[in-house]
Automatic annotation (TrEMBL):
Major facilitator superfamily (MFS) profile domain span: 5-391
Stretches that traverse the bilayer: 40-59, 71-100, 127-148, 160-179, 249-272, 279-296, 302-322, 343-360, 366-383
Protein name: MFS transporter
InterPro entries: MFS, MFS_dom, MFS_trans_sf, MFS_Transporter
Recorded family membership: Belongs to the major facilitator superfamily.
Keyword field contains Transmembrane: yes
Cellular compartments annotated: Cell membrane
GO molecular function: transmembrane transporter activity
Any single Gene Ontology cellular-component annotation: plasma membrane
Bilayer disposition of the protein: Multi-pass membrane protein
Amino acid sequence: MFHLLLAVIYLAFISLGLPDALLGSAWPSMYPVFHVPVSYAGIISMIIAAGTVISSLQNDRLTKKLGTGKITAISVATTAVALIGFSVSHSFIALCLWAVPYGLGGGSVDAALNNYVALHYESRHMSWLHCMWGVGASIGPYIMGYALSNKQGWSMGYRYISIFQIGLTAILIISLPLWKQFQNKGNTGQPDSSSVCTLPALTLKQIFQIPGAREILFAFFCYSAIEQTSSLWASSYLVLHLGYSSEKAAGFASLFFIGITVGRGISGFITFKLNDSQMIHLGEGIILIGVLAMIFPFGKTIALTGLILIGLGCAPIYPSIIHSTPAHFGADKSQSIIGVQMAFAYIGTCLMPPFFGIIARSIDITLFPIYLGVFLCIMFFMYETVIKKTHIV
């Protein structure tokens, strides 16, 4: 049952990643159809992120009431409906409306499954879990590229992904008894989940008063700014700065997610030797190299390599911060804190990619790697402060 449930959780994270890169890869083909500026991708991204913030903040209460299995099934079903809505939209306003359930579904499943794995599974499983997200995020642009290359249009790309989500919803509904059986039989040595679930949810004020909590929230904000700005604007950067066609850029943009996917697969094995903090430092160093490769004018090949390196660097950071949450702040507080961490991550998603859209339109899209570098520096100093305040190295 342990491994069967883990396989279901992995599938759920593949489904979480599939839609994440679709907007960025499809947008160069979408915005001329809707007669809106290229920067309007930031508006849709902001609405999706706002939905995820709301659902993440409510996740602790909903999970205690319904359980992780039901929350996951409902969330995936909500995302499937939203993707179908995207595929049949004929106006920018319609896209904005469907972006609401799009975001609400993603935030709930993200926070619920992250805490579940942090409590029940070892660090390598957290890395591999997020590797599965990378699998989905890498496949998504290829599916969209396939639809565009075969003249099926971006709407068919969204439709393909929605079909997968519908199938996964059915699997999750069938698997609901597994969640109860696993909880009743215990776990792998982490704190008892049944006792944790009976504790009241912490308020935002209580969370902010925990030493190191504010810093870890801002570290998540910065990480999300790096990852989601790369996701949304890499394709446009390749088209507008490096001169690639929209079709090729959609495929090349997936290099970032391939870097995340491969990196998280490898990170699962590296965690046998390095702890969570060391994994985070390793990722920050690799992102720095990737940013520098894109800043200096070494040509298209080096720039594409830099994009892969940024993905590789992102790979261990997110799962390592999540997995270390019970160690830094206690298992009794992890569900509440992880929910707010997700919210801050999505606030970063909500604000920072659209803000770069303003920079790209007003100044130049060539500032893309410099923008990422600024948030990398802030994230580094925030996490170092967390280590000092919690005394967990």
